[in-house]
Amino acid sequence: MTMKHKHLNIYACLLVGLIISYSCSQKEKRFSIIVKNTLDIERTFEVVELTKDFLKVEDLSTLGIQDEGTGKLQVTQTVDNDGDGIMDQILFQPEMAANSEKTFNIVAVTDTEKPKAPELCYSRFVPERTDDYAWENNKVAFRVYGPNAQFRYENNLKEPTLSSGVDAWLKRVPYPIINKWYKKYTEKTGTYHKDTGEGLDNFHVGASRGVGGIAVKVDSSYYYSKNYVKYKTITTGPLRTSFYLEYEDWDAAGNTIKESRVMSLDLGNNLTRFIISLEGANTIYSGLTLHDRKGNVSGDSDEGWVSYWETLEESEIGTGIIAKKSTFLDFETYDSNIKDLSNVYAHLKVENNQVVYYAGFGWKASGQFKSKEEWEDYLVVFSRRINNPLIVELVP
């Protein structure tokens, strides 16, 4: 090949590259949305949910979301919330500067053109460990307990658990660990109760509320449900995992409580969102276990958050609950000499048989938070975000 031909080939490759680049930045634009951040803080890892009705489209599967300023396609995730096989929402996480707005074009894309991202938001039913349901993202992991674990408790069998509390799995790595840790358990190659570099489960729940389990208070007593009885995984992906849990009707001093919930955890967040559907009570109490009661309770009822910071073996951990100001009534500490009954409770209003709140934790050994003050700062900012959500406007 002559030098001239070599140069022609190079120019041809450059031309093809330019054409591909141009075509990627000049997708077929259908319409646009404007996202506005009204707060004086930068906002990242905040999911924007766009529905078919809002976008006025029938099919979300062929849509992409493109930053008009940079031409960059955003990582998206479509979700079928009702299980009918049709996607109801498209999700994305815009990066928003303080007091800013951005235009995003809704464009036509193929599956191969959509940006790929690792599926760090994950959840599943765990039949190999009785019947846990576990979920995680790149920051934290959790689990709750099912009917087989309750059956084992009630019949004096091995591995019993009677609790509707929420367990915290303390991870220090950004990649998924649920399957790896349960594999250790099933293959007897190790235990997730020891930290070998990825973290561990050393957070005791027992009959407590753990991290965000609920109670109904009648007079001065708190009443709980037992283990969940039904589950359904809704979605897993790069931006969110969500699932449905249902509980057997339970009694609160003669009041029958009907409870189900949709729980979700988004990429980059330390808090799980709880959407509780409830009949039989006008308020609930979402709790954080106090363990040995040697930690520090703090909170702000006006801003809608409560926290507990404590020493946990060789490290420290902060747990927290946040709700919108209109929902968060107050918080109270309940101390008991009976094991696992000491909790700090967020008192939350139930409206139209539903209450929404966020609960989670920050583990010092993960490197995410260095102190109680950093954890509380995170809760304060998170509270500001949920009370001032990103504004999304459709531009035809």
Automatic annotation (TrEMBL):
InterPro entries: DUF4861. It holds the Pfam family DUF4861. This is DUF4861 domain-containing protein.
